[in-house]
Amino acid sequence: MKLKLVTRLLALLVLAVLVSLLLELPIFWRQFYPIRYKKYIEEQAEANNMDTALVAAVIKVESNFSPKAVSRADARGLMQLRPSTAKEVAKGLGHTVEDDFSDKLFDPQYNITLGTRYLAQMLKQFKDNEILALAAYNAGPSKLRSWLEAGTWDGTWENRRQIPYAETRDYLDKVQQAKKRYRRLYNYD
C-alpha cells in the first residue's frame, strides 16, 4: 500500500515537473500569443518608430488577430478602428476616402497601416507616455484628457485603478501582459 502511494506521488511529481517545463517553452505560449500578419506589423512598427511587441499586443487585445472583428461601437478590423477615426488618419496620410472606405478596414494590411499610425499619433500627443497613449487609444483622447484635467486619474501605471472605465483599466493590463509575452516569445526588444 505504501509503495503504491509513493509511486503515485512520484508520478505526480514527475508530471508536475514536465508540465512546468512545458509552460516555459515558447512553442507552447505561441499557441496563445500568435503573431499573424507579422510582415505588416513589423513594417508599420518600423515606419512609425514603434515597438513591434506593442503593436502585436494591441492587435491581440483588440481583435485577437481577427481581421473581420467588429465591436459594439462599430470599431473594425485587427486594430479596431472606428470609421470616423480611420478616415481622419487616412486623410492625414493623403489617402482618398471613398464610399466603401469602412469595408477597407477589414483588410489586414490597411488596418495595420492606419491603426499603427493612429497609435503613433497618440504616443506623440501624450509625449511618448505609452500608458497614456494606450488609454487614449481605448477610451479616446478627449475622454483621457478630461480624466487628467479633472484629477480623476493622475496618468500613472501605479494608479490606473483610478480610471473610471473598467474596460480601459483592463485594456491597459492586457496590453502590457501581451507586450511582455510578444517580447519574450518573438525576441522583440
Task: Provide a brief overview of the structure.
This protein has 189 residues and is mainly α. The model has no long low-confidence stretch (mean pLDDT 91).
Supply the number of structural domains: 2
- This entry's quaternary arrangement is single chain
Q: What do we call the CATH topology of the largest domain?
A: Lysozyme
Level of helix content?
A: 55-70%
User: Largest sheet, if any?
Assistant: none
- Radius of gyration over all CA atoms, rounded: 21 Å
What is the averaged pLDDT score?
Answer: 91
Q: Pick out the low-confidence regions.
A: none
Please, could you describe this protein's structure?
The structure is a single chain. The chain is mostly helical. The protein has helices spanning 2-24, 26-29, 38-47, 52-63, 83-92, 101-104, 108-125, 130-139, 141-150, 166-186. The termini are far apart.
Topology, please?
Elements: H1 2-24, H2 26-29, H3 38-47, H4 52-63, H5 83-92, H6 101-104, H7 108-125, H8 130-139, H9 141-150, H10 166-186
Helix pairs in contact: 3-7, 4-10, 5-7, 7-8, 8-9, 8-10
Main features:
mainly alpha, 2 domains, 65% helix, 189 residues, globular, Lysozyme
